[in-house]
């Protein structure tokens, strides 16, 4: 069992703000970005949680940014230029705009250009679901997947999240378009866990289970040509509608000295324009009751609706804090030392 360190939300938030206020943000902006990252840890999506802050700290002390700007707006739409700034900041503004528009006019759509990594797509779809709305969020990302049948990376592992307000918890699908997200391969490499077959190709397009070959190579698209096709559509939605740029124009997260040209797209739809929210919730509750009693295969203890696993984690972690692995702590300590702030974790691992 790997060493695990338990961190409280408060402790993590204070540390994150102290770091990002050294990286071109004021305390209020830093708190928004850090909240977005911690929300992933609370939902158990640690790959897109606090550990990503190291990329942000390094990027935003290397590159020049411009203020985030709303360049075009109508009653129901909004185009945001993120000015190469923090993706979580621009995306929070854009989804809030979509929600405001949906409150007034029934639906709101925001497109964002010149942005950066926005964390987990779930964060923004859930912002809408928390307001009783259907929320959809998506982003494009650096090329990591070959077109179906191709042997060179061209498609991004563009994630999409779709959320509806549920009875006890929101139903939310948040998924990348590869069999697994690149950060999951980074995590497996970092932790030294064996890489399952079917996750990655090497740089010649051949299947691999070697960590380094996978990191240097490409990701396997989810569902063959259908996943590859969905990646094309989401790239065009995020990259072409915003006139942001797409495919290999979107750079990798660790090229700190160049604009990444990431684009996002957000939709909020006000449920109460169609039916009372309570009625939708009771319909989802009825769906959930039927779903959960479907007979299970041998060895399967329980069936999960999309987002249910993350909700269970959220309930537990928002009460008790969240664990960081030793390798994650080492990465965060390295960034603390680099930027001259107190380390987040200087305690013994859980159970020691
Ligand atoms: N910002 C970026 O550029 C970027 C790029 C890629 C991925 N991501 C993020 O990476 C995160 C991880 O993506 P992923 O595709 O690895 O997620 P995942 O495979 O862990 O989960 C995908 C979805 O499947 C559901 N699920 C998981 N196990 C299930 C089960 N046993 N039964 C039923 N449903 C189940 C989850 O609730 C989730 O909605 C996401 O938050 C995504 O937004 C971000």
Provide the spatial order of strands within the biggest beta sheet: 2-3-4-13-5-8-9
In the predicted model, the low-confidence regions spanning at least 5 consecutive residues are none
* Percent of residues in β-strands: 15-25%
CATH uppermost class of the largest domain: Alpha Beta
CATH architecture term of the largest domain? 2-Layer Sandwich
Overall number of structural domains: 2
Mean pLDDT: 95
Work out the helix count: 11
Going by helix content, strand content and strand pairing, the class is alpha+beta
Please give the oligomerization state of what you see. Answer: single chain
CATH superfamily of the largest domain: Malate/L-lactate/L-sulpholactate dehydrogenase, NADPH binding domain
End-to-end separation: 12 Å
Q: What ligands does this structure carry? A: nicotinamide-adenine-dinucleotide
CATH topology of the largest domain: Ribosomal Protein S8, Chain: A, domain 1
Could you say which overall geometry the principal axes of the C-alpha atoms support? globular
**Topology order in helix (H) and strand (E) letters:** EHHHEEHEHEEEEEHEEHEHEHHEH
The radius of gyration over CA amounts to: 20 Å
Biggest β-sheet, characterized? 7 strands, mixed
DSSP helix fraction: 25-40%
């Amino acid at each position: 069992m790997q060493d695990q360190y338990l961190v409280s939300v408060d402790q993590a938030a204070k540390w994150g703000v102290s770091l990002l206020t050294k990286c071109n943000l004021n305390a209020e902006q830093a708190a928004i970005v850090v909240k977005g990252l911690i929300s992933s840890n609370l939902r158990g999506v640690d790959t897109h949680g606090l550990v990503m802050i190291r990329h942000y700290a390094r990027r935003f002390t290397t590159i020049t940014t411009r203020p985030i700007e709303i360049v075009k707006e109508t009653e129901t739409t909004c185009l945001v230029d993120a000015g190469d700034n923090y993706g979580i900041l621009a995306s929070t503004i854009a989804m809030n705009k979509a929600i405001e528009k949906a409150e007034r006019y029934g639906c709101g759509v925001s497109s964002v250009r010149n942005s950066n990594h926005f964390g987990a797509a779930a964060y923004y779809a859930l912002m809408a679901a928390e307001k009783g709305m259907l929320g959809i969020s998506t982003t494009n990302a650096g090329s990591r997947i070959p077109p179906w049948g191709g042997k060179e990376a061209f498609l991004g592992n563009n994630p999409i999240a779709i959320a509806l307000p549920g009875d006890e918890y929101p139903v939310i699908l948040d998924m990348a378009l590869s069999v697994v997200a690149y950060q999951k391969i980074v995590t497996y490499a970092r932790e030294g866990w064996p890489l399952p077959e079917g996750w990655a190709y090497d740089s010649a397009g051949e299947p691999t289970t070697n960590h380094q070959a996978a990191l240097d190579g490409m990701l396997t698209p989810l569902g063959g040509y259908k996943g590859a096709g969905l990646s094309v559509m989401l790239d065009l939605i995020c990259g072409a509608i915003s006139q942001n740029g797409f495919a290999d124009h979107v750079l990798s997260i660790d090229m700190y000295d160049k604009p990444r040209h990431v684009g996002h797209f957000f939709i909020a739809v006000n449920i109460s324009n169609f039916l009372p929210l309570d009625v939708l919730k009771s319909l989802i509750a009825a769906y959930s009751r039927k779903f959960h009693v479907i007979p299970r295969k041998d060895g399967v203890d329980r069936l999960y609706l999309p987002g249910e696993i993350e909700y269970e984690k959220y309930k537990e972690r928002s009460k008790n804090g969240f664990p960081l692995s030793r390798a994650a702590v080492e990465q965060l300590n390295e960034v603390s030392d680099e930027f001259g702030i107190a380390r987040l974790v200087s305690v013994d691992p859980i159970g020691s």
